[in-house]
């Protein structure tokens, strides 16, 4: 399902116009993105948790040569599905 199909499905389910639904979806993604970019997690009960994770610098190994290398610190985005979502997906609902 792409964004256009998601907007159409949400508009049909809520009985609202596609334009308003698209604006809501854009606002939702903007708010979640800005909040997570600041370092604050966003948790939507029964759905997912969005968070920024900072990974410390560490030593690693080049698998081809076996040489020890330093891996720099980095920031990653993490989306974790919550229990109700996982249960619904695994049950096939």
| Full CATH superfamily name of the largest domain | IHF-like DNA-binding proteins
The structural class is alpha+beta
* Percentage of residues assigned to helices: 40-55%
Tell me about the largest β-sheet: 3 strands, antiparallel
The number of helical segments is: 3
Number of domains: 2
Rg over C-alpha atoms, rounded to the nearest angstrom? 19 Å
Q: What is the CATH architecture term of the largest domain?
A: Irregular
* Overall average pLDDT: 94
Task: Report the uncertain regions.
Answer: none
- The CATH C-level class name of the largest domain: Few Secondary Structures
Q: Tell me the total number of β-strands.
A: 5
First-residue to last-residue Cα separation: 16 Å
Outline: elongated
Which short descriptors sum up this protein?
HU Protein, Chain A; alpha+beta; two-stranded antiparallel sheet; elongated; 93 residues; 2 domains; three-stranded antiparallel β-sheet
Descriptive overview:
- It is a single chain.
- This protein has 93 residues and is an alpha+beta fold.
- The chain has two domains: 1-38; 40-93, IHF-like DNA-binding proteins (HU Protein, Chain A, Irregular).
- The chain is 44% helix and 29% strand.
- The chain contains three helices and five strands, in the order ααβββββα.
- The chain has helices at 3-14, 18-37, 83-91; strands spanning 42-44, 48-55, 58-61, 68-71, 74-81.
- The protein has a three-stranded antiparallel beta sheet with strand order 1-2-5. It has a two-stranded antiparallel ribbon with strand order 3-4.
- The relative contact order is 0.12.
């Amino acid at each position: 399902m792409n964004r256009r199909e998601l907007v159409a499905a949400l508009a049909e389910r809520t009985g609202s116009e596609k334009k308003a639904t698209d604006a809501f979806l854009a606002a939702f993604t903007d708010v979640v993105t800005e909040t997570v970019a600041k370092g604050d997690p966003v948790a939507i009960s029964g759905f997912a948790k969005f968070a920024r994770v900072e990974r410390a610098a560490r030593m690693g190994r080049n698998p081809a040569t076996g040489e020890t290398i330093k891996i720099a610190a980095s920031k990653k985005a993490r989306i974790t599905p919550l229990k109700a979502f996982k249960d619904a997906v695994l049950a096939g609902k």
